[in-house]
Specification:
The complex is a heterodimer of chains A (310) and B (292). Helices cover 75% and strands 0% of the residues of chain A. Chain A is built from twelve helices and no strands. In chain A, helix 2 runs parallel beside helix 5. Chain B folds into two domains: 223 residues, 3-Layer(aba) Sandwich (Rossmann fold); 44 residues, no CATH class. Chain B has 292 residues and is α/β, with parallel strands linked by helices. Classes of the chains: A mainly alpha (310), B alpha/beta (292). The interface between A and B is large, with 44 and 61 residues.
Chain lengths: 310, 292
């Protein structure tokens, strides 16, 4: 070993003045390390699978009518987007904290001047960056394929009208409008945003559960169960709280929504695939609800984690 | 309490740590009314059998566990505060780091957590890689490191922010004698630099070579504590080591002691023995120097 390295100075002043109670830079360091970790675990191979699925869905069923072809492409693509986001949100978040604890990496991190809340936020941010980046790439692939397919379908439809001698301006305009409704619109990006927000809520929930769970499997199974229940909250409310008084029903619904996130709030994708356009107010409401859940779950996770015996 | 120049590096006062039992299991008292201090600049060895409470004590000192009673301080700051960890570097027993990061990336990661950055951090990381002999492995992923290399990258990350206190939990666990000797040499070097070291190890002979003071723990209590040379000295015996002494000289010494009377007697006379570790290191050094 080389003993020529410069000696640390034991006489330097204590580092107290340099300490910052909450440092976005430390959070970012933890987040980027988490992204690197997940990327090098080859989690994003899913993106290649997605690209293949989108291309296949776009070009394999040419016998359907134009609207059906585009709708099928969106159906398959959004299904893959949702699976990607939810699976990564649950599995990668559930793995992070127990693995750091098992490998004792957590000891070396928390024995540095790193508050536990920064560790939690950094890990969550890392997962969200990965999901956000993945969704962004998938959105771009979907948009490109949909745009190409939309133009091809429209050309074919117009060609067909011309062949049948029905290519009047009105017919062409009607066909163009019908294809455009099922084609690339900004609403598709809003749908991707909704998927991201839902994944963020599920990630925060998985993080909270992993703070007190003793095994990764428990975290994954419990989060999956809660995510399923979260999708069916409307149904649960109607079934179980039907006979309650107005106040009782509201209280019971609120309690249910706190224990288990109401993921139905983010389910706008199906309508978007059918050609609906979400309003700005809808998007704001979704974003607000997602923030509320994420902040709430992280706050509770911190309360649990700060008391955790490592 | 604001830290001062005369403050102990580590102060443990009446520490008791109980692991509570769950689902009908009994509680377990890991550490009972433990008190000791580590002065700035000294190497303090905490030794004891498995389960004696050494690692628990270290974790409380580092704020990873909360004390049930008593308190621990680092350079005058309560261990429960994050701020107290600014001046501490920690190497846990059998450490693993993010396998996907290279040695250099690992040091940059820990350096950034300590508020370092830019060229200063890179220079410091290179310096630590050189200090721990890992320059050639800097761009290799940590997942491919040997046990000894993991311990050394662990030491490098512990030192990255120039801490005044190093806490080493079994730093030589699972490392071969040569690697173990390197780590021992590093501890001696840290001491020369004025860094305080709190260390546990099962290799008592190595601790004996580096520690100024030791504390012996058993069943969560401190059973002996003090300066090493005082603790291990046998006060009513004297050791004389002679070189090239003839049998006649030895016989005259025996006769002289016998003639002196008053309870003085020669207990043992013979060739002092080297240790198995020294023999191993000499043999492997000789072999490596013979190699082409």
């Amino acid at each position: 070993m080389n003993g020529e390295a410069t000696a640390p100075s034991p006489t330097r002043p204590p580092a107290a003045s340099r300490f910052v109670a909450f440092s976005p830079s430390r959070v970012w360091t933890l987040a980027t390390a988490t992204v690197t970790q997940l990327v090098r675990m080859k989690i994003l191979v899913f993106l290649l699978v997605f690209a293949a699925v989108v291309v296949a869905a776009g070009f394999v069923f040419p016998v359907m009518n134009p609207e059906q072809q585009l709708k099928l492409l969106k159906d398959v693509s959004f299904g893959a987007l949702q699976i990607f986001a939810i699976v990564i949100a649950i599995v990668s978040t559930a793995l992070l904290l127990p693995r750091d604890l098992e490998d004792r990496t957590l000891y070396t991190i928390l024995s540095k001047p790193v508050p536990r809340v920064e560790y939690l936020i950094g890990k969550l941010l890392g997962v969200l960056l990965l999901i956000g980046g993945g969704l962004f790439v998938m959105d771009a692939v979907l948009s490109a394929v949909l745009w190409m397919r939309q133009n091809m379908v429209l050309d074919a439809a117009i060609h067909s009208l011309e062949h049948e001698n029905k290519a009047t301006p009105e017919n062409i305009a009607a066909q163009t409008a019908a294809v455009a409704k099922q084609g690339l619109t900004w609403a598709l990006h809003a749908g991707v945003l909704a998927i991201f927000l839902k994944a963020a809520v599920v990630s925060a929930l998985a993080l909270l559960i992993s703070c007190f769970a003793s095994t990764t499997l428990f975290t994954i199974v419990t989060t999956f169960c809660l995510a399923i229940v979260g999708h069916g909250q409307q149904m649960l409310r109607e079934y179980f709280f039907h006979g309650f008084s107005a106040v009782g029903e509201k209280a019971a619904s609120s309690a249910l929504a706190i224990i288990c996130p109401d993921l139905g709030v983010f389910d706008i994708v199906e309508n978007i695939i059918k050609g609906a356009q979400p309003s700005g107010a809808d998007l704001l409401h979704m974003t607000f609800m997602a923030l509320l859940y994420v902040v709430g779950y992280v706050a509770v996770a911190h309360l649990v984690f700060v008391e955790k015996e490592l | 309490m604001p830290p001062s120049a005369s403050t102990s590096a580590v102060s443990v006062e009446n520490l008791t740590k109980v692991f509570k039992g769950h689902l009908g299991r009994k509680s377990f008292v890991a550490v009972r009314e433990l008190s000791f201090t580590v002065a700035a600049g000294e190497v303090y060895g905490l030794i004891g059998p498995n389960g004696s409470g050494k690692s628990t004590t270290m974790k409380v000192v580092l704020g990873l566990l909360a004390a049930d009673e008593g308190r621990t301080q680092i350079f005058g700051r309560d261990s429960t505060t994050v701020q107290s960890r600014q001046d501490v570097g920690f190497l846990p027993e059998n450490p693993y780091f993010y396998k996907h990061l290279t040695g250099m990336e690992t040091l940059l990661f820990y350096g950034r957590l300590c508020g370092l950055g830019g060229g200063r951090l890179r220079a410091r990381a290179r310096e630590m890689l050189a200090l721990t002999g890992l320059e050639d492995a800097a761009e290799r992923r940590v997942g491919g490191y040997s046990k000894g290399m993991l311990q050394r990258i662990g030491l490098a990350q512990a030192l990255i922010h120039e801490p005044r206190l190093l806490v080493l939990d079994e730093p030589t666990a699972g490392v071969d004698p040569a690697g173990s000797r390197k780590i021992r040499d590093l501890i001696i070097e840290f001491k020369q630099r004025g860094i305080t070291v709190l260390v546990t190890s099962h290799l008592l002979e190595q601790l004996q070579e580096v520690c100024d003071r030791v504390g012996i723990m058993s069943h969560g209590r401190m059973v002996r504590e003090g300066r090493l040379d005082e603790l291990i000295a046998v006060e009513n015996q004297t050791e004389i080591v002679l070189e090239e002494a003839s049998p006649e000289l030895l016989a005259r010494i025996r006769a002289l002691v016998a003639a002196e009377g008053g309870g003085s007697r020669v207990l043992q006379m013979g060739n002092p023995r080297t240790t198995l570790e020294r023999l191993f290191l000499k043999a492997t050094d000789d072999t490596s120097s013979d190699a082409p």
